[in-house]
Amino acid sequence: MDYEFKVKTSSEREKVEDLFDFEGCKVGRGTYGHVYKARPKNANERSDSREYALKQIEGTGISMSACREIALLRELKHTNVINLQRVFLSHADRKVYLLFDFAEHDLWHIIKYHRTAKANKKTVVTPRSMVKSLLYQILNGIHYLHSNWVLHRDLKPANILVMGEGPDRGKVKIADMGFARLFNSPLKPLADLDPVVVTFWYRAPELLLGARHYTKAIDIWAIGCIFAELLTSEPIFHCRQEDIKTSNPYHHDQLDRIFNVMGYPLDRDWEDLKKMPEHPTLTKDFKRSSYQGCSLSKYMEKHKVKSDSKAFQLLQRLLLMDPTKRLTSEQAMNDPYFLEDPMPTADVFAGGPIPYPKRDFLTEEDNDTDKANAQANDKVRSSIQNAADSGPNAKRVRLGPGPPQPPQPHNYQQQRPQF
């Protein structure tokens, strides 16, 4: 490239630090980078006075994982999927910045708020209408992704954002598409793509048993886990994650936790269980008799969710062990749970005051902890990134012929909520 042309284009390119104030405004850190709360400079003189989330991708240059996230988000447009506003590339230090709408809340912080209140014996119950509205909007966003052949693959409370005061107040935004992948028909073998997704607690049992294909059912299982957590303020399949650095999908402690809640799957309930690659290891490590008294209904009854409630019946269908029997997002949205009062609302806070604290900026102490965690996660990020970068999709990511389409209209029941 001509040197003078390179200098000229570099000088003309808008720089993120010239447009936004974000120094000292870090609000979070993920596996792939830092997140800052950013405000436009000279906001008083500009028509744009909104707040933004600025995600700085870890490392230098654009990795294949970042390319996939950018490519998907540039084409995916839906009210319940986070909106990518702009991409900035700093030539000075080769940093990549993604600019999003700023969400003041996320489910991790919301659930933590209620869990802390419960631990302190305060009665701060998550409103039933709010739980229902959150779940409905999560399903709505995932239905859009699945309709456009996209699997999220890393659904968890921290990746479910909720907008604060403003025009999108109380709207759910599904975020962090770093692990999202296109899926095809017929499905590609798992080995052809990166084999690891990060968070074990929300991982479907078929993945823990070495399933060779992705299906939409892995996202549905994760949504079921999130739903249970909203109902109880506790992660339903919480367990230790000390061997998160392994690329082996089999995880004994996670399976043990699932069976302690759900019971050991019967052959008639999951006919293909014997076909799972890790089935021999499963039969060696576990005895069915150890989990005879365990069931989802017993677990939820302990948390005051009755087994004859519509909420439990929907949860049960989202958390079926056999992925082929789990509900689809569309079927879940048409479930009777959403047709009884209170009805889901477009503003999950239902127009009332928002009780949850705003995001805090990270302190120096937080940053020190951040650095330690970052070093500990370097190998994880490196192995995942290398696996992702070695995937077959070197060509430009497209969502089929033309831009993504909204889900086609279905013969929904007339009472289905319309936002």
UniProtKB/TrEMBL annotation:
Keywords: ATP-binding, Kinase, Nucleotide-binding, Nucleus, Serine/threonine-protein kinase, Transferase
Domain Protein kinase: residue ranges: 21-338
Region (Disordered): 357-419
Residues the entry annotates as binding ATP: K55
Segments crossing the lipid bilayer: none
Pfam annotation, one family: Pkinase
GO cellular component terms listed in the entry, alphabetical order: nucleus
Main subcellular location of this protein, as a coarse class: nucleus
Subcellular location: Nucleus
Bias type Polar residues, positions: 372-388
Keyword presence, Nucleus: yes
Database matches in CDD domains: STKc_CDK8_like
Entry keyword Transmembrane helix: no
Biased composition, class Low complexity, residue ranges: 410-419
Source taxon at top rank: Eukaryota
First and last residue of the signal peptide: none
Catalytic activity: L-seryl-[protein] + ATP = O-phospho-L-seryl-[protein] + ADP + H(+); [DNA-directed RNA polymerase] + ATP = phospho-[DNA-directed RNA polymerase] + ADP + H(+); L-threonyl-[protein] + ATP = O-phospho-L-threonyl-[protein] + ADP + H(+)
Entry EC number(s): 2.7.11.22, 2.7.11.23
SUPFAM superfamilies on file: Protein kinase-like (PK-like)
GO molecular function list: ATP binding; cyclin-dependent protein serine/threonine kinase activity; RNA polymerase II CTD heptapeptide repeat kinase activity
Names of the cofactor(s): Mg(2+)
Family: Belongs to the protein kinase superfamily. CMGC Ser/Thr protein kinase family. CDC2/CDKX subfamily.
PANTHER family for the chain: CELL DIVISION PROTEIN KINASE, CYCLIN-DEPENDENT KINASE 8-RELATED
Protein name: Cyclin-dependent kinase 8
Species for this entry: Galendromus occidentalis
